[in-house]
Amino acid sequence: MNRRKGKTEMSPQKIEMHFTEIMHLAARLRELSGKLKSTSENNVMQIACENRACWNSECADIVVQKEVKISGQLVSEAENLAAIAEEMESQARKMYQSEMFNYQLAATRIYHQF
User: Fold this and answer.
1) What's the pLDDT tens digit per position in 18-69?
2) Rounded to two decimals, what is the model's pTM?
3) Rounded to the nearest 10 degrees, what angle do helices 12-38 and 58-108 cross at?
4) Can you say how many angstroms the Cα of residue 49 is from the centroid of all Cα atoms in its chain?
5) What is the DSSP string of the chain?
6) Under 8 Å CB-to-CB from 111, ≥6 apart: which residues?
7) Which of 63, 69, 91, 106 is the most interior residue, by most CB within 10 Å?
8) CA 58 to chain centroid
9) How many whole angstroms separate alpha carbon 55 and alpha carbon 26?
10) Domain definitions of the chain by residue range
């Protein structure tokens, strides 16, 4: 990207490359979010149940409560990651449209000499 006196020049290929890169990162973030949510909902809860079944005491109840709380927090964070991925995709689309519009506008601009 070259900048001269407030002007920006970016080729359509670079615009497309940046858009694709951001969309790929958002997809990876969404995938990570899904894995985190699945793990926290399934594996952590299964471990908590197994621990409770093997250990009968007041302390076991406290540990299970903490494990359930942590699992809920992980689910919440996974949902936050999914929301961030969605926002990244939305912003990437807007930026792509804006940059392509700017490129087309610059390509068709006619300068008059006075």
Assistant:
1) 999 999 999 999 999 999 999 988 888 788 778 777 878 888 888 888 888 9
2) 0.75
3) 170
4) 31
5) -EEETTEEE--HHHHHHHHHHHHHHHHHHHHHHHHHHHIIIIIIHHHHHHHHHH--SHHHHHHHHHHHHHHHHHHHHHHHHHHHHHHHHHHHHHHHHHHHHHHHHHHH------
6) none
7) 63
8) 40
9) 42
10) 13-102
Structure tokens at 110: 């006619």
31-42 pLDDT tens trace: 999 999 999 888
For helices 45-54 and 58-108, the axis angle rounded to 10 degrees is 170
Which residue type does 20 have?
Answer: T
